[in-house]
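Lecture 7 notes: from sequence to structure.

We start with a single chain of 367 residues. Read the sequence below before looking at the structure.
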Amino acid sequence: MRQAPILSEQIQRFRPDDPIETAATPPASWYTTQSFLELETDSVFQNQWLFVGRRDQLQKPGDYFSGTFLRRPYVVVLDDTGELRAFYNVCSHHGTCVATGEGTAEHFVCPYHGWTYDRQGALTKAPLAGAMQSLKERNLDLTPIRVCQWGPFIGLHFGTPSDSPDTLLAPLIKAFATDPFENIQFVRRVTYQVECNWKVFVNNFLDGGYHVAHVHPELTGQLEMASYRSTLGEQWSMQSCPATSHPESDASSDSAVRVSGHADYAWIYPNFMINRYGPWLDTNAVFPISPRRCLVVFDYFHEGPPETGFLERSLAASDQVQQEDIEICHRVQAGLNSGAFHQGVYAPGFEAPMFHFHRLLHADFQA
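Now the structure, written as tokens:
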């Protein structure tokens, strides 16, 4: 990809081959400029599996959900045989989106001129636009997108994948203390719009627990932070920590309700996180909106149906952690926007997962 000189210079300011002890973090421009978001759209998000939904959203033929990832509108549907399909949500006539939200559809009808597509994406009707056979010869069906199921999640790939998530992420599954997907069921979705670049949110997740004692004091009391460990995979990382066994920890606190036994915090490049703790699994998918704003979608799963009071206490405790993270991300973004901050450094004993993330970004920028 040919890059403007200024953009290329900003990419090269990050030196991925330096040891973490002396490496500088990416410059502030990576987090504040439209040019970097456009670069990421084509060089990062175009070339990775992106998890955009859950299999339980699609129960029977015709069930669908739609969305937009940056400038790419999509619709995911179960076809007439129950096969998972995905398409660009774009009518081949004048480009109108043919589906909204989620639901069940016999077919997709463009609201502009009534062009109609079946669940396999084939154009079946184009009112007063000429003979259908002639139109079919012009390849006017919905444009397909590669789609997969991995565990309970549905992923899209807008480019050409090197392999399936089942293969790419098999080592990650083995890095969990137990099978992360066993016996879980979806219980709730919570979304947050965060005033920071999407990478600021990911960085916060990947600092190896460095921020936990300062930002999450109640959660800190439930984790054996001295045993916090990080493992790096090819395009993933895992942070793991046992729950504390100290008698001074408050076993009745909201955090203790959530965390029991062991906590695994997995990240999948570029923007998907899986947290497994006690009977809970939650996912964080971070969707860029603009250079300085992102949407974070949390999906919560539980081993079997949770008791109502336990559910609400656990989700309240989780929300407290998210609010603490959002506040610190806002503060980081303010510093990045200031013009006073240029590049930072890493805490070598903690931030190897973050450095790994930045090296993967740099490699994609150079590709």
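The chain has eleven helices and 17 strands. Keep this in mind for problem set 3.
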